[in-house]
Amino acid sequence: MGRKSAPKSVIRRLPVYLRILDNLLTNEVDIISSKELSDETGFTAEQIRKDLAFFGAFGTRGTGYNTSFLRDKILKIIGLDKQTNIIVVGAGHLGIALTRYNITKNPYVNVVAVFDVDPNIIGEKIIDVEVVPISKIKEIAVKHSVKVALLTVPSEQAQIAADEIVKSGITVIFNFSLSKLRVPDNVYVHNADLSIELQSLIYYATSK
Amino acid sequence: MGRKSAPKSVIRRLPVYLRILDNLLTNEVDIISSKELSDETGFTAEQIRKDLAFFGAFGTRGTGYNTSFLRDKILKIIGLDKQTNIIVVGAGHLGIALTRYNITKNPYVNVVAVFDVDPNIIGEKIIDVEVVPISKIKEIAVKHSVKVALLTVPSEQAQIAADEIVKSGITVIFNFSLSKLRVPDNVYVHNADLSIELQSLIYYATSK
DNA sequence: CTGTGTGAAGGAGTTCACAGCG
DNA sequence: CGCTGTGAACTCCTTCACACAG
């Protein structure tokens, strides 16, 4: 694949292409041009071609891209060709929403468990995924070789929960709490910062 | 203020500074240097100075920035100096989570109502905010001059709900559904795309 | 002598323009 | 001819280096 590591901006766009390709496949469209992808995504056709060309020559000149072939290529690039096991830490409203969403709408990931500290909800099920005590993170994460944790506990408990996640060998944390997490260098934290996005939006809402 | 319009990247960082300044103020720290802000945020000190300098000279050479003064300047730049009224459309788990978060943790915005179609939850309260029928969006939005809507309904209903939001005069939609919304040019849609962010993360989880 | 403010240099990513292949 | 693939130009942002004010 690519010589040097892929730019973040490209990696952010790949899942957008993937979603459109999945839609096209259910509608049995088997060829798509960069121009059409451009109309669907809002990105320019040149940019889309550059993004894809970064990983190889997937298209046919004069024709376009084979939908199913391109979909498989993107799946492989992202790493979604094999099932990815994730966990959700925190069974509050946000945790439940994310769990349900991923179970029902995201075929590429598998939620193996939801963790919480509240004894009242331990044992409950979110669709078919059980809520289990946080103390079991390591056991379950190791057993299912979990790669990613979605962290949705209140900010005050975020660091403690993050420590447990790190101890269990998980190296990617999608952090929805406001806390800045302290983790070892080999762990990658991605902050969702919905409140910060909302505040940025307010700038655009007021200054026009 | 700035001669030409502020870069998006700057606007995205301002709320980050704001959060830290708020923390410092509760701890009664009244001077902060760009170096210290750098340690807190991970952005370089030069970048932070450039960001702030874009809007004016807010610091004191040899000393740093006055915490409270800088906080007030940033509030004014973003437009958070006056209370911003928002609505949440969709009282599912995600809508409830966002509502509660903004009521309890975000002093700069005011959630005036949560909207849903389910008659069973109409009239319920999320903390002190009432759940009302979607048919009332326009009435409430006009009355409270609402600027921003958080859209958390299922994807199938997202376009219908967006149409109602647009009709009510709201010009900024923070879209958490997967649907690409069709709106007039004067309406700004910001997509949260949590599933796309998760898929990008999986790339980083597998390729190292 | 410290830490801000800023022109100048550098780098990353996007757009342009067109060559190349089906 | 059509649409991909790609060097070159360009734009936007970041980093560097230092002048300048307290």
Keywords:
3-stranded antiparallel beta sheet, DNA-binding, globular, 2 domains, homodimer, 7-stranded mixed beta sheet, alpha/beta, Arc Repressor Mutant, subunit A, Rossmann fold, 8 helices, about 210 residues
Describe what you observe in this structure:
Chain A has 208 residues and is α/β, with parallel strands linked by helices. Chain A folds into 2 domains: 3-78, Arc Repressor Mutant, subunit A, CATH 1.10.10; 84-196, Rossmann fold, CATH 3.40.50.720. Helix content of chain A is 45%, strand content 19%. Chain A contains 8 helices and 10 strands. In chain A, the strands form 2 sheets. In chain A, strands 6-7-5-4-8-9-10 form a 7-stranded mixed beta sheet. Chain A has a 3-stranded antiparallel beta sheet with strand order 1-3-2. In chain A, helix 1 packs across helix 4 and helix 2 crosses helix 3. Chain A is globular and about 60 Å long. Chain A starts with 7 loop residues before the first helix and ends with a helix. The model of chain A has no long low-confidence stretch (mean pLDDT 95). The interface between A and B is large, with 54 and 54 residues. Chain A binds a DNA duplex (22 and 22 nucleotides) through helix 3 and strand 2.
